[in-house]
Each structure stands twice: as C-alpha cells, then as structure tokens.
Amino acid sequence: MASDKNKNEQINAWLEYRREELLQKQSGNAGPQMLMDTKSLETPQKKFCMLESLKFTEHRMCHIRYSETEFPESYLWKGLMDLVTKQDNFLAKSESFSIKRRVPIYKQFFLDLIAHNGSPNTPTITDQRVIKETMHWLFIDCFLCIEMAKTIPAIWQLPLIDQTALLLNNIILTAVFSKTFYSCVNCPDAETLTLPNGFSPIFFGTFDVPIRVFCESIKCFKDINLCVEEFVLLRAIVLLQHASIDIAPSSHQILQNEIEDFTSILMEYEKTKFGEMMGVKRFAELMYFLIRATKFSIQHRNLVILYMSTTAPQQKVHFSTFMESVVLGIIADETLPDKFL
Question: Exposed, middle or buried by CB within 10 Å (0-12, 13-18, 19+), for 22?
C-alpha cells in the first residue's frame, strides 16, 4: 500500500509539474516537445500521464472554444508555417478567456436571416456574414488542434517537412472529429453539426451530401456515446494517422509507436472500466466507429473544398492562407488577401 501511495504521489507531482509548465510556457525556450515527455517514467505511469495530459489539454481547448471572449482576429491572418514553427503555446493563454460561456442563438434566428436575405447562392451581406462566422469556427477548431498537436512529443520528433505533411493531411479531419463530438456533448438535442453560436451549416440546404455530412455523423457519434477519455485518445489517433502520407520511414515509425501507445492506453482503459470481455468488445466497437467517423470527416473536407472552388468565388468570399492550406492539403501562398475568412 505504501508503494502504491508513493507511486500515486509521484504521478501527481509529475502532472502538476507538467501542468504548470504548460501554463507558464510563453516564450517556448524549452520547445513544445517538452510538454508531454514521458520517457523517464515506468510504463503504467507513462500511460496514465499521457492520458491525463490529453485531458488537461482538452480542458484548455474547450475553455477557449466556448468562452464568450472573442477569438483574437490577429491569428486569422497567420499562415500554417507560422503556426507550426511558433514556439509559444497558445493554450497557456487560456486564462485570458472569460469563464462565461457563449450563449447559442436560437435556430429560428438563423433560418429567418437566410429566408429574408435570399438563398446561399445569392451573395447578400447577411449570407456572407453567416458564412464567414461558420468558417471562422472551422479555423478556430483547426487552430486549437494544431496547439493540441504541440503537446504530443512524437510530432515534434519529426523533421519539419514531415510535421507539416502530417498536419496538412490530418488537421481538418481532427478538427471535424472534435466539432462533431462537441455538438453531441454540448447540444444533446442537436440532430446536426452545431457551432458554439448555435449555427449549423445544414441551415443552408437539405441536399443529400450535407445531410450525410452534418446529420448522419452526429447520429454516428451519439450511437457510440464517447466519454472524454475515449474522445481524447481517439482524436490523438486520428491526428497521428500516417499510412497515406509521404514522409520518411523513420517518421512513420515514430508515429506508429505513438499510435500503438495511445491504442494500448485505450484498451487498458476499456478493460478497467468494463472488465476483460466487455472492455475488449467496447474497444472493437470504437475501432469500427473510428473508421466511420474518419469517412464523415473526409466528406466534410470535400464539401468545404467544393464550396471553395465553386460558390465562394461567385460570392467573392476569400479564405485565409491557413484555411486554404489545411483544407486543400497544400502550403498556400502565405500572403495577406484583401479579405479573408
């Protein structure tokens, strides 16, 4: 018992140290890779600390996302490379965001706006404002996922070119995974993807593809009913997927090792929570769910690409270089446009 008590005290001390380090790391002198370095820990301690670190990061992300404090627009101008190479950790600034949560606007408000100002194919000022706000939330979720990535040491062990390739391929998929989970947890009655302000992209139409992307994905998440621990582990696995990415063999191995660690933690968590047999069954269900959820995320990305290539130019809507990069999966020309989303 004394040994277990000492081990728990060591784990708690380590977590407290890392949490303080995350909060205080403004200048990034030690580099973001130090935020979740668990090499010196024994395996059980390492797994526990990795999960707790993911949960702590998620707490900070949600605090920023749902705060009534407006997200700093200066970040909307930054390019992907600027965000990737920037050493400071934005999550450490979460205390500057109000603890008061944003109050969602009623659905009918948005429906009336769209009805009174024409269809989304008509470039009215109101429509553009609603679209702009929708895309700002996509940016914020992608941005927060990049900051989350900075707390995972495996990513920062990669060469910069491989880090960038991984984030270009996976950030928007990870962000959509987050958005869908948040819609289920924070809007229990929602039947479609819902943003913190209460808006849903489905309000613009009821065509087959948007329904599949924005509604069926919610049903998929509600059916599996993820807890926070399952969510943060699965999201980390989504972020680290690398099979189809052109990176160095050594980078593939680093990412695969990290995925195996997170997968092992998830399996142990399920067996501890549900018992041996039911835990394995739940784990298998989560792996099948992950395949379905990833497909919905890819469809979501394709829908945004379609909008960027067709409707957006007609409405003279411009995207930031960051959004062009993460949506299209390429490094866009990082110059400032006259207008941006």
Answer: buried
26-62 pLDDT per residue, tens = 334 444 433 444 454 456 677 778 888 899 999 999 9
Q: pLDDT category, 156, cuts 50, 70, 90?
A: confident
Is residue 236 within 8 A of residue 55, CB to CB? The reply is no
pLDDT at 65 over 60: yes
Tell the residue number behind the tokens 């495996």, with chain if given. Answer: 154
Give the separation between CA 192 and CA 187, rounded to whole angstroms: 9
Q: How many CB atoms lie within 10 A of CB 255?
A: 24
- In one-letter notation, the amino acid at residue 328 is L
pLDDT reported for residue 26? 35
State the first-to-last Cα distance of the chain, in angstroms, to the nearest integer.
57
Q: Structure pTM?
A: 0.78
- What pLDDT does residue 211 have? 72
Cα 292 to Cα 93, 174, 244, 261, distances in angstroms:
34, 14, 17, 22
CA–CA dist 201, 191 (Å, integer): 12
Residue 74 has pLDDT above 90, yes or no: no
Phi and psi for 67 in degrees, rounded to 5? -65, 145
Closest CA to 326 of 204, 145, 114: 145
Token digits of residue 331? 């490094």
| Amino acid letter for position 174 | T
Q: Give the relative orientation of helices 125-149 and 228-240 as an angle to the nearest 10 degrees.
A: 90
Radius of gyration of the chain (CA): 20
Three-state DSSP string of 152-183: CHHHHCCCHHHHHHHHHHHHHHHHHHHHHHHH
